[in-house]
Amino acid sequence: MQVVFLGGASGVGASCLAIELAGQWFVVDAGVRVDKKADPLPDLALLEGKDVRAIFVTHAHADHIGALPLVHQAFPTAPIYASRATGLLMEVMLSDALKIMNKRAMEEMELPLYPEGLVAGMLNHVRPLTIGEGLTFPELPGVTVQASRAGHIAGAVSLGFSASDGSLVVSGDISITPQRTVQGALAPPITRPDLLILESTYGTRLHPNRQAEELRLAQAVAEGIDRGGHTLIPLCGESARRTCCCPKHFLPPCNGRSAGATRPLPAGP
Ligand SMILES: [Zn+2]
Fold first, then answer.
1. Contact at 8 Å (CB) between 109 and 101?
2. How far apart are the C-alpha atoms of 182 and 150, rounded to whole Å?
3. How far, in Å, from the CA of 230 to the mean position of ligand 1?
4. Of the ranges 65-74, 161-170, 192-201, which one carries the lowest mean pLDDT score?
5. Could you tell me the sign of the dihedral formed by the alpha carbons of 118, 89, 203, 56, in that order?
6. Distance from Cα 51 to the centre of ligand 1, integer Å
7. Confidence class of residue 237 from pLDDT cuts 50, 70 and 90?
8. Distance in Å, CA 42 to ligand 1 centroid
9. What is the band of 241 on the pLDDT scale with cuts at 50, 70, 90?
10. Domain boundaries in the chain?
11. For a Cys staple, 82 with which of 57, 93, 109, 133, CB 3.0–4.6 Å?
12. Domain 2-197: which topology?
């Protein structure tokens, strides 16, 4: 078993792993860095000379999928396995990314990372990954893959890989706490892996209580409505959009005001 970190190991962004198991290479995630001062891409040169047979995606955030079109370009026959929700969200997220790249190309002469056609071709190679079952794939003989719910955002999974020469779990981004639109993470698919690659973003921070934060936001919105005004809530993430804009899941009623008073505005740009 070999594991190569192409990004994301010592900072946030560009998460990308190359793994060799049972004599075959596969990739887990290929994201970008959103910090404009940093190189946006993982160190894709580390894939040079490796016969990547398959690609797995833990979830559809840009720091895990933003560089997938380039990995697909390098290994065009490798199928891309993702949960159904992740597959659907990838279409939205990568379409958003293309819009932003094209806008920056016009306004700042910044070269886009990839063209629209490459994204469409990549999305054609996405295959469904069933959650909960031990799976085998023709491209990776001798390797069993098991996905478990990771919380975090819709469709997010942790991935377990096992073969005769070892086993590992890639947690992806995980969230134990249930959210309004996403259930919390379940235990990883392999209980005693030889290697655990565990997300640790914000692991050293003290986190606010979610319910208290929801109530604080709801109170601020209610105060605005009581003054006869409107409240604009900028939401950068897809799950945040759904949590705040879906009437069924809206913030707790406050001062008699509730979701009926809200409506989503189109996301820019
Ligand atoms: Zn994430």
1. no
2. 10
3. 30
4. 192-201
5. negative
6. 27
7. low
8. 16
9. low
10. 2-197, 210-261
11. 57
12. Metallo-beta-lactamase; Chain A (3.60.15)
